[in-house]
Amino acid sequence: MKYLHTMVRVTDIDESLDFYCNKLGLEELDRYVNEGGRFTLVFLAAPGNESAQVELTWNWDPEELSGGRNFGHLAYEVDDIYAKCRHLMDSGVTINRPPRDGRMAFVRSPDGVSVELLQRGEALPPADPWKDMGNTGVW
Amino acid sequence: MKYLHTMVRVTDIDESLDFYCNKLGLEELDRYVNEGGRFTLVFLAAPGNESAQVELTWNWDPEELSGGRNFGHLAYEVDDIYAKCRHLMDSGVTINRPPRDGRMAFVRSPDGVSVELLQRGEALPPADPWKDMGNTGVW
User: What ipTM was reported for this prediction?
Assistant: First the structure.
């Protein structure tokens, strides 16, 4: 038995790929377009960690993608949580829970999927601008 | 960058561990009990696949755990999808999408989290009772 992926639905595939790949840092591994079923599946993973994937499901016909409470978040370990959050923030992503502790941050995808970022190994020393940055919204 | 886990919230930790471990086949790797915060975290993974985990968050104070549409499902590859579904069904789990094709099935956790099961490698030949079994609900 082996974990394959977590599937999340997206309303705008371009906006979502921009978030998950350009901003968060995942890579596209595979794509399946079903013209008859009017949906596209895109499989993403962290570089070098292809066995644990995120599947984006984009149904071409518009639908409301509400959030729920039973699902919490996707979590990724990152090499430098400050550099990652800086890149995300400079790309226009709100850092809902800044890494004040040098260890943990939360952001959200364009469809409201919460993503946790955790510093690999020991927490980094407190640093500006993160150490005094307040929370924004919920995650 | 590396995938760590998908977090899902649960309302009843015993019922959830029964589902995810005894029925689905994951193993408990770690547990963190926070008396002050009144929550318990339990980390699970498929045997031999400890690097890709599911984190169960159990908040001790009751809360409504609605489902949403932005999250889709967790997916696991299994060695024998018929044996896995038989074990789940015999344990009282509804097979929402039976493996009629010998390849894919869906079930739901006690809190409504959809779980996809995919046969490793080639699809199995069609077999009773699965090949004629209808769907139940949504997944």
Answer: 0.96
* Of the partner residues B4, B70, B109, the one whose CB lies closest to the CB of residue A9: B70
Q: Which region, left, alpha or beta, applies to residue B77 given φ > 0 means left and ψ of -120 to 50 means alpha?
A: beta
Given an 8 Å threshold on Cβ–Cβ distance, is A49 in contact with B2? yes
Per-residue pLDDT of chain A (139 residues; tens, 9 = 90+): 999 999 999 999 999 999 999 999 999 999 999 999 999 999 999 999 999 999 999 999 999 999 999 999 999 999 999 999 999 999 999 999 999 999 999 999 999 999 999 999 999 999 999 999 999 999 9
Nearest CA in chain B to A1: B78
Q: Distances in Å between the alpha carbon of B92 and those of A137, B45, B87?
A: 40, 22, 9
- The whole model's pTM is what? 0.96
DSSP B89: H
Strand partners, A45: A27
CB nearest A76 (choices: B4, B46, B64): B4
Compute the nearest-CA separation of A5 from chain B (Å): 5
To the query of whether residue B15 is one of the catalytic residues in this protein, the response is: no
Point out the catalytic residue in the list A35, A63, A77, A116.
Answer: A116
Q: Is the distance from CB of A125 to CB of A83 less than 8 angstroms?
A: no
